[in-house]
Design a protein that fits this description.
The protein is 67% helix and 1% strand. With 504 residues, it is mainly α. A two-stranded antiparallel sheet has the order 1-2. Helix 1 runs antiparallel to helix 9, helix 3 (73-101) runs antiparallel to helix 17 and helix 7 crosses helix 15 (307-347).
């Protein structure tokens, strides 16, 4: 997965892989563990994977859990909503924490704080306590934001979509892996002589231990940026001490972040919804056994091993020729196709047909997630964390709204809810046409006629006083490195005289 990259930076001898002027990697080598870039990649996806396993450990065992706790359909629906709603606010907070304290500390703290809740799942005895543990466990899904922030801080423009897509996709594998892991662990515990109402409780110790281990690995083995951790870089003056109000302001006033939050709500939000309902859907509608339902449901999540990474890779490949406009067009096309296949999934009445359509649907909807985070790193340099948090939180909001409207109680049959969800995907993907960058253009328009440059766009986030103190230097380097987003077929936007200082 090595894309074409500029000549190695002459000041980068200390790094084992080629880097740009910000010391971000210009190649992506997933089978390397070289510090700090590839080590951060592996720590990020694995910790997110563990959190995903914990958050979706309950759905594959729901037929047993509901009998033990006497859960109604409404109780199960509410718990599913709780599992994804907890991360809505947590993802925005995580984005802010990444901007201010760095992804390593922010991620490790949240993972370790939520691990005890997973252990406590073994002690639930009512619908209310089941809902609460799923709600608080869901907070850990905010580690997605730190994962994407971390990758955007470690990898340069030619491969940032790939790095975000692969790390997010491999992390999301936890949703499918839990469908295999939990029934297997449950069956193994049964063979020791435990009764089924005890076995499912003991099974939750496995995801809890995995999550705890990953927190310590991130904290002790990770590094925030190519040049070091936030705290040390701030003490030495190598990184500015940013103000929360300024970071927040430049995030919430950038409409592109809000549009991406909406569209992400109906790719990742749909993925979360499917993770919650799909095993029970096949179990109830097609009368398959628990193990078979788990395998079918797992296949949806396990497609992330290539589908979301494929979206990120596709974003980078298209951008190498068509620039940012290519990223936006590809996102819209792929996510719209996902919506069409979702509509079809709700209409197919045979087991084999449903499985086939579900697999195709999973590829498109997960690829759209990777494509989204091929765009996110370019929305704002200064407020990258909050923009990532807003977008990630939008995914959880979409999941909550979808489950409340279509899958809570008995208002709609599950297959009808799936069809209506597909229509929502199509509608909520349309606002992608509104995204436009003055220096690159949008889906239906080219760069601004006023001659806007990358430097103009990213320097606008800094005041004249901050520029005088040199706080803008990192953004200036990023602006220069992002000129690739013009694409080969787009007339090159004019360059600012200031770009010549990018190696300062």
């Amino acid at each position: 997965m090595e894309n074409s990259q500029p000549p190695p930076n002459p000041n980068s001898e200390k790094f084992p892989i080629p880097v740009d002027s910000e010391h971000k990697a210009t190649v992506f080598r997933p089978f390397s563990a070289a510090a700090p870039h590839m080590r951060a990649f592996h720590l990020a996806w694995f910790s997110f994977f563990c959190c995903f396993v914990s958050s979706f450990a309950a759905p594959p065992l729901l037929p047993v859990i509901r009998d033990n706790l006497n859960l109604t359909a409404t109780d199960i629906g509410n718990a599913g909503i709780a599992a994804v709603s907890g991360a809505v606010f947590a993802r925005i907070v995580m984005g802010t924490a990444c901007d201010l304290f760095g992804p390593r500390l922010a991620s490790a703290s949240l993972i370790l704080a939520t691990a005890p809740v997973v252990f406590c799942t073994a002690m639930v005895n009512s619908a209310v306590s089941f809902l609460l543990v799923r709600f608080f466990t869901g907070f850990s899904l905010a580690t997605f934001v730190s994962t994407q922030f971390w990758m955007s801080s470690m990898f340069s423009s030619p491969v940032v979509g790939t790095a975000n897509g692969v790390s997010g996709g491999w992390g999301n594998l936890g949703g499918g892996a839990s469908q295999l892991i939990m029934p297997l662990v449950f069956d193994l515990i049964l063979t020791t002589g435990a009764v089924k109402f005890t076995a499912w409780r003991i099974a939750f110790f496995i995801p809890a231990l995995m999550q705890t281990f990953s927190a310590f690995a991130v904290f002790f083995l990770g590094q925030d940026l190519p040049d070091g951790n936030f705290a040390i870089l701030k003490k030495t003056g190598a990184k500015e001490k940013d103000k929360f109000k300024d970071v927040l302001y430049h995030a919430v006033t950038n409409y592109r972040g809000w549009v991406l939050a909406l569209t992400y709500g109906y790719c990742f939000g749909v993925e979360l919804t499917i993770d919650n309902i799909i095993a029970q859907y096949f179990y109830d509608r097609f009368n398959v056994n628990l193990h078979t339902a788990g395998i079918i449901a797992a296949s949806f999540g396990l497609c992330n091993i290539f589908s979301r990474p494929g979206g990120g890779i596709l974003s980078d490949v298209v951008a190498s020729r068509f620039g940012m406009r290519g990223r936006l067009w590809t996102l819209w096309v792929v996510q719209s196709l996902g919506g069409l296949f979702c509509v079809m999934l709700g209409q197919v009445g045979s087991l084999s047909g449903s499985v086939a359509v579900m697999l195709v649907f999973s590829v498109f909807v997960q690829a759209a997630c990777g494509l989204t985070f091929g765009v996110v790193p370019f929305v704002s340099r200064r407020s990258l964390g909050i923009i990532s948090g807003m977008t990630g939180g939008g995914g959880n909001v979409g999941a909550v709204l979808t489950q409340v409207i279509f899958f809570r109680g008995s208002r709609f049959k599950t297959e009808t809810g799936i069809t209506l969800m597909g229509i929502m995907i199509l509608c909520c993907t349309l606002p992608t046409v509104l995204i436009s960058f003055p220096q690159w253009g949008g889906m239906f328009c080219g760069p601004s006629s006023k001659g806007a440059t990358e430097e103009d766009y990213y320097m606008s986030e800094w005041s004249s006083g901050e520029k005088e103190r040199g706080f803008h230097q990192a953004s200036l380097k990023f602006a220069d490195n992002s000129k690739r987003e013009r694409g080969r077929r787009v007339e090159a936007a004019p360059s600012s005289p200031e770009e010549t200082t990018h190696n300062v």
